[in-house]
Amino acid sequence: MCKSSLLSKLVSFTYTLSMPLIVWAGVMLSLPLASCSMTKGFDQYDRFCIIQSTETPDNEYWSHYLYTHFSHRCDLPLLVTERKEPNSSSLLVKINYNPSLGRKYMVDISHDEIQLSAGRKEVMLWLCYQFISKVAEVDSRFRATDLPPASIELENMSGEFPFEFRGIASPGNSNADMLGITATHSEDYNWALWGHNLNKIIKRASPSLKGLDIYAEVNGKRDTAQLCFSSDRLYKIIEDYIADQWGEGELNAPERFTIMPMDNKHACTCELCTKVGNTNTNASPAVTNMIVKLANRFPKQMFFTSAYATTRKRPDRTLPENVGVLISAMDLPMVYDFKATAEFEDFNASIEAWQKLTPYVYIWEYARNFDDYLTPYPCLNILQQRIQYYREIGVKGIFINGSEEKYATFEDMQTATLQALLINPELDIAQYTRAYLQRFYPQSATIIGDYYIGLEDKVKEQSVALPFYGGIEEELTYINMSDFEAFRTTLDKQAKQIQGEERSRLNKMLTALSFTPLEVMRLKDNPVSLDKAAEQMEILSGYESFADMQESKEALGSLETYIEQWNDDAQNATHNPLQGTTIKANDKELDAQCGKLTDGRMGFYTDYHTCWVVHKGQWQLTLPPHKSGSTILNLSLLVAPAWHIWLPQQIRLTQGDRVIATWATPSTPTDKSILYRQFVEIDISSADKNAPITLQMSPVNLERATIACDEIIVY
Asked: Which of 7, 85, 523, 527 is deepest in the core (most CB within 10 A)?
C-alpha cells in the first residue's frame, strides 16, 4: 500500500490547460496480440525483474516505486528484483515513463517481457497498481486483497484516460491513500474551493472585511442567505483567501476554485448587480464578472462557475482560458435510454452552448436517491451510458455525487465500478462487479452478484426511472419484495457461516437492508405487523455499531429518530369516524391523494414521501357530513422549512355561505433545521351534522410554499 507521504505528492496531479483533450475513440482498446507472447503463466516465473526501459530520472523513480510496492506484496525473498536476471525463468517488467504520451497508457508484451508505458504521474501510478492487482489474480504468491480488481488485461493493449477530472463523493472514494491507486479525485483533496462553500471563507475572513454589502439585496432588503457578487468586500475576501492559502499557482498545475451562489433561488438585485444584468432569478452576470476578475488576477489558477439554479443562464461572452463550468445533470432523468427523454435535447444543447464559451465543461452527476441511501439503487448501467455520452461530446471532467460520507447499500462495489468506468467507459459492468465481489465478499459473491446484477438488468431492460429524491413507492418500481426478501434470507443464512472481514461487511449490509421492509410496511395498503416491525427494528438498531450509518438519507435522516417514530404510538391514528370515508378535492392532483387523509396511517415527520399528502397552492376539500356528533376537527400537519413545507397561513371551514371556524398560523419559522408535526384542532360544534364541510387551507406567502397533511381526524 502506498504511504500517505508519497501519495500526497502524487495525487496533486499535473493538468495542462493549454491543450484541448483529445478524445480517443478506443479508450480501452485491446489490440491484437503480437506474434510473440509470454512463454509461460505468471506463477511459473521464479523472478520478476523490474527495470527501466531507458535510464532517465523518471524511469528510475517509477521502476523503484513498482519494485518497492510489488515486492511488499509477497513473502518470498528475491521473487521481485531490481536487476535483470540471466535465466529463462525470469519475467522482465520494464517501466517506460514518456511525457509525450499524455494521458495514454500502453502494455506491450514480447516473449518474457512486459513494458508498462505512461506519460503522466497519475496514469503511471494507476498502471503500476493495475499490474499488481492483475498479477495477484493469477499468481497466489502475491497479495492484493485490499486493492480493487484491475480493469485492464495483461496483454498488448493501449488506452487513454478520457477525462481530466474524475470525482466521486462517496465513502468508497474518501481514502486519501487510495485516490492515486484508483486514479480518482475527491472534492476534499483535489478542489481548493468546492460547491456552495463561499460562506465558510466569509466566516474565516477578517472582521474588517465583513459588512452587509457582501450579502444579496432581495426585494429591497439584505438577505444573509445569499451573496452579492458585485461586492468589492466579497471579492477582497476571496482574493485574500486564495493568495494566503494557495498562492499564485503553478503553470500547468492549477488549483480549482468554484465560485457559486448559496444553494437557493435568490439573486441579488442591488443597484450594482442590476446594472450588470442581474434579475431576481438570474445571478449569472454578477457571478461571471467576479469569476473573470479572479481569473485575471490569478492566471495560473482555475476557476469554475456553475449551470445551476440562478446561474443556469449562460454568459454572453467567451470566458478566459482558466475558467470552466460545472453543469448539473439533475434535470436529466436517471433512466437508461436517457437520450429518448424530453429533457435530453435541452441538456445537450446547454452543453454544446457552454463548450463555445469554455473548453472546460465538467458535469455534476448523481448516483443516489438522496432521500433513501439504504434501499438498493442500481444505477451503474445508466451511468455508464451517460459517461460514454460525455466522452463522445468532449466533456473534460465528471463529478459524481453519491452519498458523500454516509453509508449506502452496495456503495463500495458501485464506487469501485464507477472508478473503473471513469477510466474505461466500455467496462463490462457485470464482469467487474462480480470480480469486485469475489475479492471482497468471496464466500457470498454469487448471492450478492446475482441479485444486484438482476436489479441492474431490470432497470435497463424496463427503462425504469430511478428517483433522485423519492420514497418507497417509487423504489418499488424496480424492487420486487419477494425477490428482495429471498435475497436477504439467503444472504443472512450464508453470513452466519462466514468469519472475518467479510462477515463484518455482510453484517453492515444486512443491517442496512432491514430499512426497506420497514418502509414498505408504512405504505397505505400494507398491513402493519407489529411483530415483524419489531424484528426489523431490532436488526436496524445495529446501525449504532457503524459510524457512517447513523442516517438513512442526505438530510434529516437520523436512524435514531426513525426508530423512535416507529415505536411512538402516534404513528397509529386514534379511532376516527372519518376513517375510510371519501374526501374530495377540487384539484385533480390533490384529489388523487385524498385517500391518505382518512386511512388511519400517520406519516413520519422526517419523511414527506410516505403517508403524507403534499400539495402546493390552495387546498379545497369537501368532508362528508359528520353524523357521529364529533365536535373537534384535528389536522395533522408537517412543518419542514428545509423542504418548503409550512403550516397554512389560514384554515377556513364553511358550509354553504356560512363560516363555521377559521384558524391562522401564529408564526412562520425560517430556521431550516426546524422539523416537527403540528396538530391543529378546530372547534366544529356549530356545524350542521347532516351537511358536508368545505375545508380550505391557504399557503403562506413564501417561495415554493407547500402544505403537507397526513390525517384528518374528527372526535
From this structure: 7
